[in-house]
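Sequence in, structure out. Go.
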Amino acid sequence: MAISFEIIRQGNDFSARANAGPQFFVGRRVPYEGKVGLYNVFGKSRLENLNFRSADFTEQFGFWAEFIEPTAACEGRNFLTLNTYDRAGFTFGFAQFAAHVPNGDFVLYFRSLLQMPDAANYFPHLGLVNGRVCSVENPQAPKPLESDASTEPLMKYLNPDPAEVEDAEVIAAAKLIHWTSNSAAARGAQVGEMIASYKSIMDRAEKRVGVHGRSAALCCVLCDILHHGRGGNMTWPLVQTALASPKPFEALIAIGAPKWDSRKQKLKSEIRARPDFEALRWDRKAGKFA
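Output:
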């Protein structure tokens, strides 16, 4: 049965109730570079403290759960992190999956959610048709919300108006927050997608620049650069130059504009706190660190 959500607004803060249950925080209305949206991770946020910890997932995913943790720390760790105020339109999760990228991490994660048994409780009007997220209000004529070329319809479904916070935006956010808070499987979907994304980056890196025998420490920086996008259009040439330098780890850390310096230092600190990252090496043939 579909869950009913009620919106509660107090000034710029939005909360919700599911089926008249306890109230929970969704996000605060914030302006950003001409857009307006929701944000829920800040100093005195009332957001539930539901953080990713690799130890909770190593039994299922092995070292990969540890490998993604430095990036998780840079992104704030909280499984319920929400941002709807920038060009991505809708960003969610401990790794801040962004909805604007066709076949990107948010799309892949959302597809996995829609395959879960409780999907109809949260998104009864959505479903997967031929592997695509679709509106299925009319089952005879499903409407794709994403394709290889665009996620514009999906972004509009989640966040109809980038210039203001709409009820549909709050409800979409509330659904994902409530589902993630109450379902270990929904949290596992975030972890699984983040690991799949980093495995994909490692495959691409092997083809583009060759990383066989490189340390997990160095590869973690490379993956974070690609996940965060701070290398821009020059990512691979910059990575190749860094790998050929006398100090490749430091050179990789340096990639990205000065505005990302605090993130880069956080990443470096998190990796240095894990000595096994330096000992483990990427095995191209096995497709893992050993």
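Check: The chain is about 40% helix and 15% strand. Residues 184-208 form the longest helix (25 residues).
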